[in-house]
């Protein structure tokens, strides 16, 4: 039975995860290396709880806050039953955190990582309980986004997977479990593919940044434009995930804009400037975009749909799971596969073949897309595509 949760790292994700845990009734131990970070986390949690109270979603913000103990010492994690690590994406740092958690926490405790890019098996190897180490991937902002990806490493046992899924549900989240770990999981593989096509269109001078984002927001009805979302997530985080995918075998799409922004230290919302300018560092405000745009939505999602169909073809997740990930992890108004079925898989295939013919290897259409199109299952208006209608 899980009663107390330790969260290590009180930054953007960690403070939100601690808040979610407290909101769902757990005792929480929030640990970070300095009181500056912890005090900042306390302020952010208080602001967020006050917002929820204003909207009458909770009655007593203070009672929720009281459930969280803040400290720089791991002593407060001693009696916790589950840990969630959300420190910066550095393997050596994560290994140190896991070694420490392994030494202070009871042998029954599960140790989860919120990493979006580091192999979970590598982190598990720092502990003496590799079978009890798992990926539990939340989305920003954790209080709002409903999805949690559950990722077993090559060592994780089924009991750990089951308990993590159960915990995610108790935290009022919607879990999607991957069959096995792949770099970037489902969410970030799709996210990076969307950004790669967005970047290719701009760098190949097919469209401007604002036109791409206008189609994303106004035609696909996404909550943010793609460059806007990259700014929101943090361009350094995006580049880290991008590098992990390409160094671990995913065919790259050459794009220099993202790396250049990071080199200029324009990291997006967190630094106040990225592809767009924001009111202040850390303060997000919706960006201004043109109402209409020539960017074709089926072209913009084509590479992401190809990636998703590769995951379906390889049995990692179902088409329905892909849709759950995009709806609850990114607030898409509908799933990516459903969007593909709406724009027509024949259109997706045509765009993939066109871009592939320009020399971009990553756009090589999967057998799944090719066979669906050749069988006439091109989407909603034919009654079948990735889904049946
Ligand atoms: N605490 C409490 N409430 C919050 C909040 C917080 N931290 N942040 C936002 N809210 C509430 C607001 O109060 C508002 O409530 P209301 O509608 O009742 O007034 C509501 O959420 C919407 O917020 P805003 O009005 O400030 O702004 P928007 O309407 O633009 O919504 C957004 C903001 C929810 C972030 C929306 O733009 C969105 O869904 N964007 C997509 C986010 C996304 O895709 N995240 C995933 C990123 S990828 C990732 O995290 C994985 C990693 O590995 C990279």
From TrEMBL:
Q: Which Gene3D superfamilies match?
A: N-(1-d-carboxylethyl)-l-norvaline Dehydrogenase, domain 2, NAD(P)-binding Rossmann-like Domain
GO biological process terms on file: fatty acid metabolic process
Pfam families to which the protein is assigned, alphabetical: 3HCDH (PF00725), 3HCDH_N (PF02737)
Source domain of life is Archaea
Coiled coil region boundaries: none
* Limits of the 3-hydroxyacyl-CoA dehydrogenase C-terminal domain: 184-278, 298-389
- Ranges for domain 3-hydroxyacyl-CoA dehydrogenase NAD binding: 4-179
One GO molecular-function entry: oxidoreductase activity, acting on the CH-OH group of donors, NAD or NADP as acceptor
What keywords tag this UniProt record? Oxidoreductase
Which PANTHER family does the UniProt entry name for this protein?
Answer: 3-HYDROXYACYL-COA DEHYDROGENASE FAMILY PROTEIN, 3-HYDROXYBUTYRYL-COA DEHYDROGENASE
Name of the protein this chain belongs to: 3-hydroxybutyryl-CoA dehydrogenase
């Amino acid at each position: 039975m899980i009663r107390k949760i330790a969260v290590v790292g009180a930054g953007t994700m960690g403070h939100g995860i601690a808040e979610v845990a407290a909101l769902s009734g757990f005792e929480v131990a929030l640990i970070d290396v300095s009181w500056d970070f912890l005090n900042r986390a306390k302020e952010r949690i208080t602001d967020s709880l006050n917002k929820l109270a204003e909207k009458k979603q909770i009655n007593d913000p203070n009672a929720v806050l009281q459930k969280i103990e803040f400290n720089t010492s791991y002593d407060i994690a001693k009696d916790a039953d589950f840990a969630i690590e959300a420190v910066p994406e550095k393997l050596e740092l994560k290994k140190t955190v896991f070694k420490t958690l392994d030494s202070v926490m009871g042998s029954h405790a599960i140790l989860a990582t919120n990493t979006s890019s580091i192999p979970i098996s590598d982190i598990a190897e720092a502990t003496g309980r590799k079978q009890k180490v798992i990926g539990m991937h939340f989305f920003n902002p954790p209080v709002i986004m409903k999805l949690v990806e559950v990722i077993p490493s090559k060592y994780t046992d089924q009991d750990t997977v089951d308990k993590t899924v159960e915990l995610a549900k108790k935290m009022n989240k919607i879990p999607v479990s991957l069959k096995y770990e792949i770099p970037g999981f489902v969410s970030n593989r799709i996210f990076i593919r969307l950004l790669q096509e967005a970047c290719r269109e701009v760098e190949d001078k097919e469209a401007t940044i604002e036109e791409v984002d206008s189609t994303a927001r106004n035609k696909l009805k996404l909550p943010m434009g793609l460059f806007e979302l990259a700014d929101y997530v943090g361009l350094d985080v995006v580049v880290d995930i991008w590098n992990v995918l390409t160094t671990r075998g995913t065919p790259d799409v050459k794009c220099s804009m993202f790396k250049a922004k990071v080199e200029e230290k324009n990291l997006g919302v967190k630094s106040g400037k990225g592809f767009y300018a924001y009111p202040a560092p850390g303060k997000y405000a919706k960006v201004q975009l043109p109402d209409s745009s020539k960017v074709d939505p089926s072209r913009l999602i084509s590479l992401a749909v190809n990636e998703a169909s590769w995951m379906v073809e390889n049995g990692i997740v179902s088409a329905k799971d892909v849709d759950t990930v995009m709806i609850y992890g990114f607030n898409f108004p509908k799933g990516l596969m459903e969007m593909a079925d709406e724009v027509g898989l024949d259109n997706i295939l045509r765009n993939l073949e066109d871009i592939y013919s320009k020399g971009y290897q990553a756009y090589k259409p999967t057998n799944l897309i090719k066979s669906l199109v050749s069988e006439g299952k091109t989407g909603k208006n034919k009654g079948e595509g990735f889904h049946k209608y």
